[in-house]
Amino acid sequence: MAVPWAIVVLWIAVIALAAPFAGKLGDAQRDNIVDYLPASADSTQVARIEQALPGGESTELVVVYHRDGGLTAADRTHAQQQVDTITGAHRFDGGPPEGIPSKDGATLMYPLSTTGPGTDNDARTALVDDVRSRLAADPAEGLGVELGGPGALQTDMEKVFETIDGTLMIATVLVVAVLLILTYRSPFLWLVPLTVVGVAAVASQALVYGLVQGFDLTVTSQSAAIMTVLVFGAGTDYALLLVARYREELRRVERPYDAMLAALRGCGPAVLASSGTVAAGLLCLLVADLNSASGLGPVGAVGVVCALAAMLTLLPAVLVLLGRRVFWPLVPAYGSEVSQRRSLFAAMGSSAGRRPTAVLVSGVLLLGALALGAFNLPGNLAQEDTFTRQPESVSAMTQLSAAYPDRSTQPVTVIAPAGTAEEALAEARRTEGVAAAHAGRSGDGWTEITVFAKDAPETPGETATIKALRANLDGAHVGGPSAQQLDLADTNARDQKVVIPLVLVAVLLILVVLLRSLVAPLMLTAAVVAVWGAVMGLGGLVFEPVFGFEGLDPSIPLLSFVFLVALGVDYGIFLMHRMREEALSGAEPAAAALTALRTTGGVIASAGIVLAATFTVLMNLPLVPLFQMGFLVAVGVLLDTFLVRTYLVTSASLLLGRRVWWPGPLSRRAPAPVVTAPREPVARP
Fold first, then answer.
1. Would you say 99 and 109 are in contact if contact means Cβ atoms under 8 Å apart?
2. Are the CB atoms for 557 and 536 separated by under 8 Å?
3. What does the alpha-carbon distance between residue 636 and residue 393 come to, in Å, rounded to a whole number?
4. Which of 53, 65, 185, 631 is most buried per CB count within 10 Å?
5. Is the separation of the CB atoms in 7 and 313 below 8 Å?
6. Taking a C-beta distance cutoff of 8 angstroms, is the pair 172, 232 a contact?
7. CA–CA distance, 321 with 307 (Å, rounded to integer)
8. Cβ neighbours around 209 below 10 Å, total
9. CB atoms within 10 A of CB 672
């Protein structure tokens, strides 16, 4: 028993060292716009150069006044006085601001720009909060006033990010705890995997913080949130598989230590391969050009590896030290038999076994029909549609779009070489679709030019203007909020073409090594790709018609593919690895498939429900991209667990017979039956 104690002591030392650094990860998270942009995009170069200009990155604000029925002369006087007070308290660029009235006379906007806060999030937040407090301190009856613009939008988004970590952690722990209690029906057992996965979460946070300090890894609030979900979801899955196998071995092995060794030998390869597929799939994101996606790869992989390490070392050690009593009141007694009552998964397997062809064809047609919904997916998500609960900045932008339909209310930023700035300014003014342009700051060999398009932000007309500016201005970079959204969409399309094939190859190679076959890995890979297509189609059916989302975040197709393929194939690994064990023991193909489903179906179902529930937690966060991610992965995992693994993979395996193991030795002949003595209770020496 010395080994389990040594492992526990080692982990205690690890957590004692890691905890202080884990707490610093929140401070190391970066949510500047550059951290979410494509590394090589034109708009990213603009944002980086702006940071080097005098005053740093500019903060663009718009004060919006509105009265239904039209503004009065008193309203305009009041608005000007308020804006003068604000500009007197803070240094804004340009001369005294002048209000721009809408054509209907009901709205008045004051664009404000400052380079004071730069990229300092705290300074920007303080500026926005102060401006809003001054606007609210002196209201005029019936006159609406809101603060919008890119700077206010970024501040509102950062405030949302600040609430994510704590809310997500609490919700995830509660969800996992409830599901473990329902699964184990024990007042004590659920605490063990939950505590161990918490240890893994702390270790992963500390390790990611170390990577940030050592390699300047980009960690956003979004990637940190997804890592938390991955650690709890994947870690709990591995715990469910190990505990189920350990309980099985305790019935035939007297000593818990020996039973745990047998359980690790039995399910260890499947757990290793499972975590390997997830980590490999995530690491494929390193080749993505999108900064937030490439940063998510190693962050997520670290979380999965920490969960694996804890579940294969600390969890077994704690379970062995606690002995059989941890399973109370359903203690697996030595020499006892498992209840022979017919299980749900045995019934499912039997139904698939009676008509495997009909089951397989029906399932494929269902997935194909769902996939057709992808044609109904909404277009790219606009910035103002990012929130599930509309903040003030978005409300202001909505008001501006309605009041000024014939002009842009947010600038396009052009960064031109200082030596050719005058020519670039003249060319920008001549460009079709440009309403106005003027030169701004200069420094470090660059000059900033602010351009206003004639069309509203993120409309086809403004997009055409941005593309025309990029085509006409040699040596210059074109950025700003709308250009950033355009670059995000283009880069995500490029990343999909590069990352998706890499993920498929990585997952396929791991499956080939584990299963010693080509047919089984191809079958499992095709199944998870079909699930991804089906859930994307389901998203097209519900995102806009049901949830009212105006668009789909451009990163969602790629990220959902990586998660669904890497995580979804886990359950195929659990099932096929057990099927291979049964085949090696001499079972006929049909018997091996149905036995594998009967013995692993329950734990796979529990694992699928837990993983889906942890991703469902993302749907409670007030950001549309995280909601969409949580929905797609949760539904995909459930679809994979209860349809694909249970029916389609089982029925396909029954139809293929030994061919499922081609070209391995299991495909050519039945192995010699293994002596059944090991399945009898093993007495303590």
1. yes
2. yes
3. 34
4. 65
5. yes
6. yes
7. 20
8. 23
9. 9
Cα distance between residue 204 and residue 301, in whole Å: 9
On whether the CB atoms of residues 583 and 291 are closer than 8 A, the answer is no
Q: Please tell me what DSSP assigns to residue 378.
A: -
> What's residue 40's pLDDT?
86
Query: Do 125 and 119 meet the contact criterion of CB atoms below 8 Å apart?
Result: no
Q: What is residue 385's predicted lDDT score, i.e. its pLDDT? A: 85
Long-range contacts (CB closer than 8 Å, 24 or more residues apart) made by 343-346? 343/598, 343/601, 343/602, 344/601, 344/602, 345/597, 345/598, 345/601, 345/602, 345/605, 345/646, 346/594, 346/597, 346/598, 346/601
How many Cβ atoms from other residues are within 10 Å of residue 576's Cβ? 29
Give the rounded distance of the alpha carbon of 228 from its chain centre: 10
SS3 434: strand
SS3 649: helix
Confidence check: pLDDT of 299 > 70: yes
Q: In this structure, is the dihedral angle defined by the CA atoms of residues 356, 362, 365 and 366, taken in order, positive or negative?
A: negative
Is a pLDDT exceeding 90 seen at residue 628? yes
- How far is 530 from 372, CA to CA, in rounded Å? 12
Task: Give yes or no for residue 501 having a pLDDT over 50.
Answer: yes
Please enumerate in sequence order all residues whose Cβ is within 8 A of that of 419, keeping only pairs 6 or more positions apart, or say none: none
Joined together, the tokens standing for residue 426 give 């003249």
The secondary structure element, H or E, covering residue 347 is helix 344-354
